[in-house]
Write a structure and sequence with these properties.
alpha/beta; 33% helix; elongated; 209 residues; 6-stranded mixed β-sheet; 6 strands; Ribosomal Protein L4, Chain: A; 2 domains
Length: 209
């Protein structure tokens, strides 16, 4: 797949770049995508939820009333789950939600996500750039020049660029990542994928292992 390389102003540089077919032109695997996104969301869960059971609730263990003759059900303690303020039955406990996935499956999921972006014509290639200072206005102007100001975007940098990252941080629909950190969830969550020219070769090296 061949795409034109654009300037920051949105104009064509006259150069083109070939997106690797083994990354942007494979047969997408939806189940691999599902598993990778599921793992990503599971790994973000804190798992600190907790409720008290009857042995953890503060209160008297004295028998409330005599066993028989009251006409009601027997009750042995105020800590019973049947009473207000009592313990909870089978309540949540702290746990780790993370699980393991094979590297090849995660790689297939990312390639599938890239392929979907290419099929939707949602990939833009931008020449390598830098900002003199971190300014949100500069990044917003860049998105406007690319006609992406009102869309959720993911910009992939070949290497960390502090000024670009800080410039995008206050924009809720803008996301900036280094190629090595890209994941399936962020790819699918974005409406448009913006690739710096230097990111293409880095992607090929990363996903062709």
């Amino acid at each position: 797949m061949e795409l034109a390389v654009l300037k920051q102003s949105g104009e064509d540089t006259g150069r083109t770049v070939n997106l690797p077919e083994d990354i942007f032109g494979i047969e997408p695997n939806d189940h691999a995508i599902y598993l990778d996104v599921k793992q990503f969301l599971a790994n973000r869960r804190q798992g600190t939820h907790k409720s008290k059971e009857r042995n953890e609730v503060a209160g008297s263990t004295k028998k409330i009333k005599k066993q028989k003759g009251t006409g009601g059900a027997r009750a042995g303690s105020l800590k019973s789950p049947l009473f207000r303020g009592g313990g909870r039955v089978f309540g949540p406990k702290p746990r780790d939600y993370s699980f393991k996935l094979n590297k090849k499956l995660k790689q297939l999921a990312r390639k599938s996500a890239f392929t979907y972006k290419a099929k939707d014509n949602s990939v833009v290639v931008l020449e390598d750039f830098n900002f003199e200072a971190p300014k949100t206005k500069s990044y917003l102007e860049l998105l406007s020049n690319l006609s992406l100001a009102d869309k959720k975007t993911l910009l992939l940098l070949p290497e960390n660029n502090k000024n670009v990252v800080l410039s995008s941080r206050n924009l809720p629909k803008a996301r900036v990542m280094v190629v090595n950190d890209v994941n399936t969830y962020e790819l699918l969550n974005a409406d448009s994928l913006v690739l710096c020219e230097g990111s293409v070769s880095k992607l090929e090296t990363l996903l062709s292992k």
